[in-house]
Amino acid sequence: MLRAxxxxxxxxxxxxxxxxxxxxxSQVGAEIMQKGGNAVDAAVAMGxxxxxxxxxxxxxxxxxxxxxxxxSGENFFIDFREVAPAAATLDLYLDAEGxxxxxxxxxxxxxxxxxxxxxxxxxxxxYGSGNLTRQEVMEPAIRIATEGFTVSAYxxxxxxxxxETALKFPxxxxxxxxxxxxxxxxxxVIANPDLAKALQKIADxxxxxxxxxxxxxxxxxxxxxxxxxxxxxxxxxxxxMVREPVTGTYRGYQVISSPPPSSGGTHLIEILNILENxxxxxxxxxxxxxxxxxxxTFKLSYxxxxxYMADTAFADVPLDGLTNKEYAKERAALIDLEVAKxxxxxxxxxxxxxxxxxxxxxxxxxxxxVAITKTINYYFGSGVMVDGYGFMMNNQMDDxxxxxxxxxxxxxxxKPLSSMSPTVLLKEDGSPFMVLGTPGGAxxxxxxxxxxxxxxxxxxxxxxxxxxxxxxxxxPMNNLQYETPLQGYEDYAVTEETVKKLEEMGxxxxxxxxxxxxxxxxxxxxxxxxxxxxPRQDGKAVGx
Length: 544
Ligand code: GLU
Description:
Low-confidence stretches: 1-6, 344-353
Distance between the termini: 23 Å
Number of strands: 19
Radius of gyration: 22 Å
Number of domains: 2
Mean pLDDT: 94
Strand content: 15-25%
Bound molecules: glutamic acid
Strand order of the largest sheet: 1-18-17-13-12-9-8
């Protein structure tokens, strides 16, 4: 019962599948695998290419997280998240009243030390097939940066929304504005020769080409121009971390996802564990009873997040407890199916509410799965475009809290708390079932949980599961949000009547919100691969 839309962003294939929020990037992934690369080679090529043709969501100045499941049954988690520079102390981010002074968001202080280049090259060197050279894997990104990519309506909107930012940070204008000094529009082609030069240098010299020498100097100088404190040492010392993924189960399926410094995987598992105590399958998706159950579950999980979650190098995070089924049972017992509760407010529930970032998924028929979510945080990151090299610096410092009592407060050398949840699901026998993830700030893991329960509990086909409006409650307080339906999904709308019923149940102010773009792959029963991209953005799956 898949719905027909004008141009479907999904595909079915026998051998391999790649899906990203840009069609040309999915094509890059499929081509790399056709050339003899494995799913990791494809993901690395796609990662570099995404930074070129969706430069406002991720890129060389950002970082990311990667979950890998190999055909031989091993799971890996690669953390290339940014880290706070050694001189980035909390006081730099506070005004006279002790409030956030805006430096986490814009300008030279907003950036963590970027991890993307180190991360993607680490993946290539350690998990790639070895059949393709760095040059071959980076060639598509260099080509697109040189020849240009066509601006979509989504991209044009992002560029025009960033008009004021580009006025403040004129280096941005060189890339995002045309010769007449106007923002590029839908249908225009953006080439970025500076970025092509940076990418070629990385292809030639490896990570050192970015973390040492002239690019590193340009990063430090451009940030300093806008008040930054990042040093050459900060860049030279950046290290990729290989971590144990968090794991759990949901109704027999195994869930493999992101550990800290992301809160995502842990709370994804906590949410699913809580939901296992209820008969979700019997509830219509987006009915009042369904939304109420999810919202109450999310609140319990976000209360824990605010209290416990941070970089484990700086905080003791009770990961085993948070992902424990018995603990979830206790949490589930707190839910009243008739009445909304206000759990204790542990922190600021409104942090990180945005839909930037990008997620892509790759898989092959042998069962290799790669899920990567990567970001410069908000669209166009800090606004700082590295002079002469054509990439934006992240504003990941905004994922910290400036509350000195928060477990996630700013500290030098610490990683800001993420919600990114690149996730792989396996069947009970250990064979792969699904690869997925999404942008969406602190709503990410609640979004991933909804896709999983829609497919597993409600039996909804993957593309529809992604397209149906989602709901969130990202905080321990009542702050229910819902999406308006895409065309063709009106029968899953959160109707006025539903909103009224939820208000009667005690949910406070109920608002609409926008969703990030999920990119997912499912291993079908007949042995083929089904990939799909979220119709909310420009993506399309490509397989062969
Ligand atoms: N910076 C956010 C995080 O790491 C992601 C931002 C987004 O998805 O828009 O969780």
